[in-house]
Write a structure and sequence with these properties.
By secondary structure, the chain is mostly helical. It has one domain. Helix content is 75%, strand content 0%. It has helices at 3-19, 21-24, 32-55, 59-65, 68-95, 97-120, 123-128, 131-160, 163-169, 175-189, 191-198, 200-208, 218-243, 275-285, 294-319, 329-347, 356-384. α1 (3-19) packs antiparallel against α15 (294-319), α3 (32-55) runs antiparallel to α13 and α6 (97-120) runs antiparallel to α8 (131-160). The chain is globular and about 65 Å long.
Length: 386
Amino acid sequence: MNPALGVFFHWLGGLASASFYVPYRGVKNWAWETYWLVGGFFSWIIAPWVLALTMTHDLSRVLHEAPASSLFWAYAFGVLWGLGGLTFGLTMRYLGMSLGMAVALGYTAAFGTLMPPIFRGVFASEVLGTRSGLVILGGVAVCLLGIAFAGAAGVSKEREMSTEQKRASIKEFDLKKGLLVATFSGVMSACFAYGLAAGDPIKAITIEHGTPRLWQGLPVLVVVLAGGFTTNFIWCIILNLRNRTGYQYFESRIRSQVPARNEEHILETVTDAPAEEMAVAVAVAQGTAVRAPMLANYLFSALAGTTWYMQFFFYTMGETQMGRYKFSSWTLHMASIIIFSTLWGIALQEWKGAGGRTRLLVAFSLLVLVSSTVIVGYGNYIGGTR
């Protein structure tokens, strides 16, 4: 094990997760359900299978030999995680990239880190009963403190900025709605950690087949992400049928009855469509030809989906370096995502117009979150030297 290398891998995963929404900004005149499903094929089906087939041995035999209970729970937790992922778009919509990820991932960090060792019955002995475990637990607490500072920055931003300023960077900023959605999304998203834990027997089998330990988590991702794909596929197809947007996969011309969407929207109704969306609808109604750039949309969606998958590609690599305290990987992953998503939020000027107090809170949250990854990494280090 090498905790320092593990922290580095988790940082790479956090960077990938925080960055995957950026390519979607290049998608034009497609409904949310269209580009989300196209990207999802790469996130949950294509990338997991290609890399698992490439980097591991005897993938089909490994999955065939895996216990039915392990396959079932890994898949089932993937389905539940999919519910959290579906509402994650609404979190971005109402809170923006930096604050939205901070709040949602705060819940995910707490539930996803602490529940696996509690479920296994080793929380008291391996976490509370050891110095290294207590240090790691302290790192989790510091991570949650950093998330709290990120949330405080969002509250401060709402108080300091006018409605016009907030909507200039986040068109539908709504703190109350955003917090409610982020809570549901965060709790359900923690199920991904449970799915990975349920896949431990699969990891053991793939190692027996000669797969290097660094890649042992890739077969598990195939199963967990299949569950996530199921949830997202069903919902996107429902939206395609309801909104009559299924033609967008094959046809560039935008039809008059369907307003096209360029933002990360979900669960929306006609009455809450954004101004840009309505402008496209008006243009179509007036007979103006509105077309979607098909090749570019597919390429941007594929890039976004593949980038999303890379977070867990690096996650499984980082987990192999954390020894018996691998449950702490979830905290490292969440903290890394929040760090890089906050930096993206700054780069995309989501905090433009905020006052000095808000900027100070943002900077302090970054410092605290970086410190939490160092503390967790150190806890794993001293645990490995015993």
